[in-house]
Amino acid sequence: MSSDHIISWHQDAVLTDSSGSSIAAHAAKPHANCDPLTPISSLPSYIAGISSGHLPLMGHFDGERPSVIGDFLTQTGGSTGQPKIIQRSSESWLCSFHYMHEHYAIDPNARVAALGYLNHSLALYAALEALHLGADFHALCGLSPAQCAKAMQERGITHLYATPTQLRLLASTPIPTVNYVFVGGGMMDVPNKTHVTQVFPNAEIIEFYGSAETSFITLSDKYTPTGSVGKPFLDVRIEIRNERKELCAPNLVGDVWVKTPLLFNQYLFTSSNVTQKNGDYICVGEKGSLDKSGYLFIKGRTDRAVNIADQIVYLDQIETTLQSIPNLENIALFAKPDALRGNIIHAVIQSESITLKDIASVLPRAIQPRSLVTVSKWPLLPSGKTNYKALEHLIKGTSDDN
Length: 402
Known about the structure:
With 402 residues, this protein is an alpha/beta fold.
């Protein structure tokens, strides 16, 4: 493989960790396993491992792996289960690097930051993109929301990659240097969009939809309708299909199938029970619809769709609806089997004032949560997504009081 088709470290790029210390790329020796406790300082070695064929992983794993020049390993978000290790090629990310350079000015004058840990796909993408294009990259993982905001102000960050949950937790203090905020890893609700606009008053907020397996699928812009995650990115093609894999008409909900040049190669050491392939198309377990103009609307994950009173409801979509309640910081919904209704919903929230009655007031009775647990601190995964597994045990043993 030509060196032009391998992710590398641009000579002008600088990596800065959460403490503000800069790390140089020189003298990095490639090795397969990077120290999971110091993922930032391991990044130079990680990049060296891509060109040497060591198939590096940001994080520790003892299993045998093939030697493939230009390939690397990363992990899925793992919000509802164990993160999966995936293998992908440099070429699968390089084309989007060049697109972001041309359209969003990620270049040697940019200062890019990510709020998640580098052993997961979103933050790793942001880091490799910045360093390959010569931009400074600031890894702000492990900091509190207040510390993140302070670091972005002090360092003059111009581009930010983050999840909706990470952004929701930031204080409303304006950070005027940021020109672009790229939001992925979940759906943005209207109050959160308003909040992000206040925090980053000079920034264009770009919501994208994708996965660790597919990378970018859609990208939003100022013309994107409310509730949509945008139109297909670059040469990506999207089809909505029913259970028989037949095409759905516009605005009908079905499985989201994607054909993309940004596709990963394979899962390594593991597999997925939701990912399907059909010819050149792949489905990673998401439900959605396309309108007549080609805008994609996501309902939620297939494994978060439940039957309640003979209706299929999407817990992800209900969560997005409930986030519009004032003073509700975060919410996670869980379904438990019920002999009468099929399933009933239970909620875990982060809020000092919201009650079960407040939540019930904005939902039809059939899908109103039957119990409510409040937590003071919201658990996040290293990927920046909600840690559903950490919250799920809180609703075990709850029962329908109605």
